[in-house]
């Protein structure tokens, strides 16, 4: 099973991914957790470029860099793990590209979709959780988070950008309701975790 977690920075998606990982491991499941971009040497190197505040990157170059990191991840990590029967939990995947580079940056959606199709090799999550919070709340969480770091290049894009990104995620949810689950991210983490578990339990029990 391949499950991805989506949301703007500060939504709590990484926290929920780790809570789900702990629960699955307690069940004795073999779980692999990965992040995007990342999880391979090349992908982590691309991540440093993409998030560096020293870089000036055009929207199209950004799209292609994220996609290059993704295809390396798919070929080197995701496909072998799925073949081995592992459960994969991914912190961001292709929906981030649709939301951030498509809706957020305003790139041609047909071109974004085609590049994403090539990058993923057709490998898509069976289940995607979108932890939905507004930009203002996410900023408050990040500001008061323990050990909070300086905003990276993507995080500095501003409120109007992230509002478009959120609209993009909601549009994906409307288009793909069987895969894409919108979770109210305004509640405490345990309530959110219970909602996620209820969905995952049903998927695990499905024939």
Structure description:
The chain has a single domain, classed as 3-Layer(aba) Sandwich (Rossmann fold). The chain has helices at residues 13-26, 41-51, 59-83, 94-104, 109-120, 135-144, 159-175, 189-205, and strands spanning 2-6, 31-35, 87-91, 127-132, 180-184. It has a 5-stranded parallel β-sheet, with helices on both faces. It is of the alpha/beta class and 207 residues long. It contains 8 helices and 5 strands, in the order βαβααβααβααβα. The two termini are 13 Å apart.
User: How does the overall form come out from the CA principal axes?
Assistant: globular
How does CATH name the architecture? 3-Layer(aba) Sandwich
CATH superfamily: P-loop containing nucleotide triphosphate hydrolases
**Major β-sheet, in short?**
5 strands, parallel
Order of helices and strands: EHEHHEHHEHHEH
Strand order of the largest sheet: 2-3-1-4-5
Number of helices: 8
What is the CATH C level class, in words? Alpha Beta
| Low-pLDDT sequence parts | none
Q: How much helical structure, as a percent, in the residues? A: 55-70%
Name the structural class. Answer: alpha/beta
Number of strands: 5
């Amino acid at each position: 099973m391949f499950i991805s977690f989506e949301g703007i920075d500060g939504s709590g998606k990484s926290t929920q991914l780790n809570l789900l990982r702990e629960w699955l491991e307690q069940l004795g499941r073999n779980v692999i957790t990965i992040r995007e971009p990342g999880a391979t040497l090349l992908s982590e190197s691309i991540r440093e470029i993409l998030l560096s505040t020293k870089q000036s990157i055009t929207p199209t170059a950004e799209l292609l860099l994220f996609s290059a990191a993704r295809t390396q991840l798919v070929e080197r990590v995701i496909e072998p793990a799925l073949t081995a029967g592992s459960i994969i939990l991914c912190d961001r995947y292709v929906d981030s590209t649709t939301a951030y580079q498509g809706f957020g940056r305003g790139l041609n959606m047909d071109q974004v979709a085609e590049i994403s199709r090539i990058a993923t090799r057709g490998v898509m999550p069976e289940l995607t959780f979108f932890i939905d919070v507004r930009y203002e709340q996410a900023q408050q969480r990040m500001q008061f988070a323990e050990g909070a770091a300086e905003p990276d290049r993507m995080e500095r894009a501003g409120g109007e950008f992230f509002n478009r990104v959120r609209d993009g995620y909601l549009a994906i949810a409307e288009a793909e309701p069987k895969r894409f689950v919108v979770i109210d991210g305004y509640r405490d983490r345990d309530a959110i975790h219970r909602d996620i578990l209820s969905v995952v339990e049903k998927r695990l029990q499905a024939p």
